[in-house]
Structure formats: structure tokens, C-alpha cells
């Protein structure tokens, strides 16, 4: 049976020692986030994840969701009780402003505990996860009336939220959508159409579901310029916030899918359902992108979360499973064979995943901190810089962490040998669950194109130049520190590869755009390698400082440094491979006729 232990100590090390959250106590919400409070919150989140969410993960996968003939959906046994415990603890509103019932604490802290919850039960945590995205969109673009009517109960978890984009004929290209909105004359609209792949579209865990739906108002321009966003509640909501009659929106089917069986992925039918415009007419994508970008960060976190729990189980198995003898001599003479963790190739697998997880954790929290600064700082320059880097990092975090999360679930499954292919060991579920994260909220190829085609050149390349300078300055400032030499030299080499690849795009992609498309995925992963290397350099500096000061657990810091050295020696050199692929251009990809495939 699988096991899970929340990485509390590692999370606290990043929050306190690497990011230094106390230094941001001038930002709203951070003044209360003292080290003691952070430790208490992280500890309580770990307990909830380990004791109430994780025990339902395997059973939820096996039972799945069931749709009745009337369109209602029953979630797996225990999900409602676990969801209620999550809501009663105030976790859904941890970073939401207090005026709407939240606690107003840093989004960084919300991200930290979100990893634990998602590792413990990804399918279950998608219900509040979609709600948090809907809350963000309403906060940003909703009217004061809409905020007061919907947000308090969504923050409390009594109501949940969804996002409705995809249609049977229309995925990433939202300009093709057909769902229509007809004005009723009283400020409301009749919404008609069908949406597919709607996570948490129907379930039995909340009193109401607030759907955010993209549709085209009659007479609006074709393409993305004519899309609007609407609030469509499952049950109508009175002016006093009371729940009234059922709206004409129903779940037509539950998708039969590869994984996340505990989450109801629905086909949603809108039959002249009453909806309310959120934001301006024909500006729906701008409003929905608030939710989508938050969701992309959350999906990146899912990639890390699955990688972490898959690693924990593979490491436990490797310590216990005996098979063969060590190449350098017997390590367990009292046993008939040595534990497989003595074998170099098993260690290669485990350290590859471990090194990614620890750097990926720092990456997600560092990015979340950028979001906090962008939304809470009163300094215009600081706010702009943080927002620039946040926008640049979003496709990298989503694409790299989910690609690697799936890869690592497969690698962890491989450690088990044949047992990894058997459902009772749980590793198959992690592989199946991880696969969707590479697809939804914009498939990872789209993330790579967004990075290369839009984010790099945005504002004259302001974000990428600022980040290159930040990483370069770190290397220069720490060049004389022998304890960091293995980190700064490798990081500088990776940064050089990244800068050279960026320049290659500038010189070769304008006249021939296919060069950008052909190299985009390699570029996204090259960028990810460098950012994760930067995280390792920052963690190594913090670990060395703590060792020098004699504070904390010395063995923890030594193991941290050994893991980081593995990343720099064995993983970081991949930047040269990615650079070489990018510079081959598009010819070998594009010259073959379509009929030859």
C-alpha cells in the first residue's frame, strides 16, 4: 500500500531560509506570517493531508464518480467528509482577502500547503482548486454586487466553482466556440451550448456550483475578439444570497478517463440557462485568463505533487526490496541479497527525482512569492518586475513540472519492477493521474509556444533580461565562495546556453517562424533546467550559511548539498543538449509531406 509524509521540514527551509518570508512583512498579509505561525499552519496542513485526504486516494480512484439518470453525481465514499474538513479548517480562503471571509495570508503559504493536499489526493483537491480559480476571476473582474453575492460562500466552501471553456469541436482555439448568449433585457442572458472536460462540473459536495462560462453574445465579432464570460449558477441566487430554483444547466455525462477518477469530469449542457456577464462584453478571455493562469500554476504544483509522492514510495520500496548484490561488495550479509537501493542505477533514478522535487518546490514557492509581490506591493517598480517574472515563469512552471512529474511517476514505477504495474501497489494511479496535468489548462506544447512566441518578446524582452541579470548577478556575487563553486560554475554554464539559445531565436525565428515552433519545447525545458539550477544554488547558499552558523540539523543540510551537487553534475549538463537541438532549426521537422506520415 502507498504511503505519504508531507515534506514539512523542506518546505519550512525554503520559506524561512531560502526565500526569507519575514523580509516581506511590509506587504499586506505578511505581517502575520511569522515563522511560528508558518510552522503551525504548515504542520496542520500536513496532518490534514496525511490523515484525512491521503487515505481516500486509492479508494477514490477505485470507486470513481457515479452519475445518476437525473444528472446528479455521487463522489467517492468519504470525499464529502474530507472536503468539509478542508473547508472548516479555512484552507480554501487562506489567501483570500478578509472582507470576503478569507484570512488574507500570503499566496506563497497557500501554495506551500497546496502541495501537501495535492500529493495526498489530487482528484479530491481539484474541487476546491477550481473554486479558488473562480474566486480569483471574480475578485479581479466581477462587479461589487457579484463579489458580495458569490464570494463569501465560495470562500467558505459552501459553494464551489468551475471554468467552462472547451467544446467538442474547440479546444485550445477558443475563437471557434459556439456557445451563445442571448440578452434577456433585464441584464441577464440565456446561455446555450455544450462544454466538455469540465472538472468538478457536477458533484454532491457543495450546495451550489458557480460556473464561469465562455460564450459569444449574439452579433459579437467572430474569433476570440467576440468572447464574453458569464457567471452561470447551478441554482439561482437571490439578492439576499439565498439559493433558489434550479438553473437549466445539467451534467450530460461523466467522461471515462485514464486517471483522476475521484474527480467528476463532466459534459455540461446549457439549455437557455440564466447567466450574468462578468467584466466587459467581448472581453471574456481577459477575465478567464485570470483563472487560467492561476490554474496553470496550480497544475504545475500537481506535477510536483505527484513526483513527490511517487518518489517517497519508490524510495521506501528500494530500501526494503532485496535483489542481487552490490557491485562493490556485499552490503547486507545477514540477508540473501542486498536492498536494491545499493545499485547505482536505482540511485540514479531516485536522485533524479529527489533533486527535481526539492528544486521544483523552491521554484513553485519562489514563483508564488512573485505573485504576492505583484498583487500586494505598493512599490510600482517592484510590482512591475514581479509581475513580469510571474508571467514569464507561468508557462515554464506548468510545462516543465508536469512533463517531469509524469516522467518521474513512470521512473518511480520502474523501481518496483513488475509490482509497479500492479494496481494494489498504487504506482499505476500516480502514472495515470500525472498524465492529465500535461494536457489540461493548455497542453504543454502550447505552453512552450506561449513562452517563445509571446512571453520572450513581451515589453521588449523586459522580463527575460531582468531574470538573466538576476541569475548572472548571483553567480558573480558568489564567485569567490569555494563552497558554492560547483553550483555557480554549472549554473553560469547553463545560463550561457540559455542566453545563446534566446539569441538564436532572435536571429532565426523572425524570418522563419517554424524555427521557433520546432525549438519551443526544448527551449522551455532548457529554461526550466536553469531556473531549477538557480533554485539549487540559492538552497546551497542557505544550507552552507546554516552549517557555518551551527544552526539546525547539520545532516539535513549536508544531504541537501549532496542532492544539489548531483543535480549540477548529472542533470544540469542537459542544457547543452537542449541548445544543440534548438540550433538545428525546423528543416528536418517540416520538409516531409503530410501524406508521408
Provide a brief overview of the structure.
The chain has 597 residues and is an alpha+beta fold. It has helices at residues 8-18, 35-53, 57-63, 79-88, 107-120, 122-141, 144-156, 284-320, 344-376, 380-415, 427-437, 444-455, 462-477, 485-508, 513-549, 554-571, 574-582, 587-590; strands at 66-67, 73-74, 159-164, 180-183, 188-199, 208-217, 228-233, 235-237, 243-246, 249-254, 265-278.
Give your account of this protein's structure.
This protein is of the alpha+beta class. It is built from 18 helices and eleven strands. It has helices at 8-18, 35-53, 57-63, 79-88, 107-120, 122-141, 144-156, 284-320, 344-376, 380-415, 427-437, 444-455, 462-477, 485-508, 513-549, 554-571, 574-582, 587-590, and strands at 66-67, 73-74, 159-164, 180-183, 188-199, 208-217, 228-233, 235-237, 243-246, 249-254, 265-278. The strands form three sheets. It has a five-stranded mixed beta barrel. The longest helix has 37 residues, at 284-320. The chain is globular and about 80 Å long. The model has no long low-confidence stretch (mean pLDDT 96).
Amino acid at each position: 500500500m502507498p504511503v505519504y509524509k508531507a515534506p514539512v521540514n523542506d518546505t519550512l527551509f525554503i520559506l524561512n531560509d531560502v526565500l526569507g518570508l519575514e523580509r516581506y512583512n511590509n506587504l499586506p498579509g505578511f505581517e502575520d506570517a511569522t515563522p511560528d505561525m508558518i510552522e503551525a499552519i504548515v504542520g496542520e496542513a500536513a496532518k490534514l493531508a496525511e490523515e484525512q485526504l491521503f487515505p481516500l486516494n486509492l479508494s477514490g480512484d477505485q470507486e470513481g464518480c457515479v452519475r445518476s439518470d437525473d444528472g446528479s453525481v455521487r463522489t467517492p465514499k468519504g470525499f464529502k467528509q474530507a472536503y468539509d474538513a478542508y473547508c472548516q479548517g479555512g484552507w480554501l480562503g487562506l489567501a483570500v482577502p478578509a472582507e470576503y471571509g478569507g484570512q488574507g495570508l500570503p499566496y506563497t503559504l497557500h501554495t506551500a500547503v497546496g502541495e501537501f493536499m495535492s500529493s495526498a489526493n489530487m482528484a479530491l483537491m481539484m474541487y476546491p482548486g477550481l473554486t479558488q480559480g473562480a474566486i480569483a476571476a471574480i475578485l479581479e473582474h466581477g462587479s461589487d454586487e457579484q463579489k458580495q453575492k458569490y464570494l463569501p460562500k465560495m470562500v467558505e466552501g459552501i459553494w464551489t466553482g468551475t471554468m467552462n471553456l472547451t467544446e467538442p469541436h474547440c479546444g485550445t482555439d477558443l475563437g471557434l466556440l459556439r456557445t451563445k448568449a442571448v440578452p434577456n433585457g433585464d441584464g441577464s442572458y440565456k446561455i446555450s451550448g455544450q462544454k466538455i472536460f469540465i472538472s468538478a462540473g457536477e458533484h454532491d459536495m457543495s450546495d451550489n456550483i458557480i460556473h464561469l462560462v465562455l460564450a459569444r453574445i449574439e452579433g459579437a465579432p467572430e474569433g476570440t475578439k467576440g468572447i464574453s464570460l458569464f457567471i452561470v449558477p447551478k441554482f439561482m441566487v437571490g439578492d439576499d444570497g439565498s439559493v433558489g430554483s434550479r438553473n437549466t444547466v445539467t451534467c450530460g455525462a461523466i467522461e471515462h478517463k485514464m486517471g483522476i477518477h475521484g474527480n467528476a469530469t463532466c459534459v455540461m449542457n446549457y439549455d437557455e440557462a440564466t447567466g450574468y456577464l462578468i467584466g466587459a462584453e467581448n472581453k471574456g478571455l481577459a477575465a478567464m485568463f485570470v483563472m487560467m493562469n492561476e490554474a496553470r500554476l496550480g497544475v504545475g504544483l500537481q506535477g510536483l505533487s505527484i513526483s513527490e509522492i511517487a518518489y517517497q514510495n519508490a524510495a521506501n520500496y528500494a530500501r526494503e526490496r532485496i535483489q542481487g548484490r552490490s557491485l562493490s561488495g556485499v552490503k547486507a550479509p545477514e540477508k540473501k541479497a542486498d536492498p536494491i537501493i545499493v545499485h547505482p542505477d536505482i540511485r540514479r533514478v531516485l536522485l533524479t527525482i529527489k533533486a527535481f522535487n526539492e528544486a521544483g518546490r523552491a521554484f513553485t514557492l519562489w514563483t508564488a512569492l512573485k505573485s504576492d509581490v505583484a498583487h500586494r506591493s505598493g512599490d510600482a517598480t517592484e510590482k512591475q518586475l514581479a509581475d513580469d517574472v510571474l508571467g514569464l515563469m507561468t508557462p515554464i512552471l506548468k510545462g516543465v513540472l508536469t512533463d517531469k512529474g509524469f516522467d518521474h511517476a513512470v521512473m518511480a514505477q520502474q523501481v518496483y519492477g513488475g509490482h509497479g504495474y500492479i494496481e494494489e501497489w498504487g504506482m499505476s494511479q500516480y502514472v495515470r493521474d500525472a498524465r492529465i496535468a500535461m494536457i489540461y489548462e493548455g497542453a504543454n506544447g502550447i505552453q512552450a509556444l506561449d513562452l517563445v512566441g509571446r512571453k520572450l518578446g513581451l515589453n521588449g524582452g523586459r522580463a527575460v533580461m531582468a531574470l538573466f541579470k538576476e541569475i548572472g548577478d548571483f553567480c558573480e556575487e558568489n564567485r569567490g565562495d569555494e563552497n558554492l563553486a560547483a553550483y555557480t560554475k554549472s549554473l553560469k554554464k547553463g545560463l550561457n546556453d540559455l542566453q545563446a539559445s534566446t539569441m538564436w531565436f532572435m536571429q532565426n525565428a523572425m524570418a522563419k517562424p517554424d524555427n521557433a515552433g520546432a525549438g519551443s519545447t526544448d527551449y522551455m525545458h532548457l529554461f526550466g533546467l536553469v531556473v531549477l539550477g538557480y533554485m539549487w544554488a540559492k538552497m546551497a547558499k542557505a544550507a552552507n550559511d546554516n552549517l557555518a552558523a551551527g544552526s539546525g540539523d547539520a545532516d539535513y543540510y549536508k544531504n541537501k548539498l549532496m542532492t544539489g551537487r548531483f543535480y549540477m553534475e548529472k542533470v544540469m549538463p542537459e542544457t547543452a543538449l537542449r541548445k544543440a537541438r534548438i540550433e538545428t532549426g525546423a528543416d528536418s521537422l517540416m520538409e516531409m509531406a503530410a501524406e508521408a506520415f
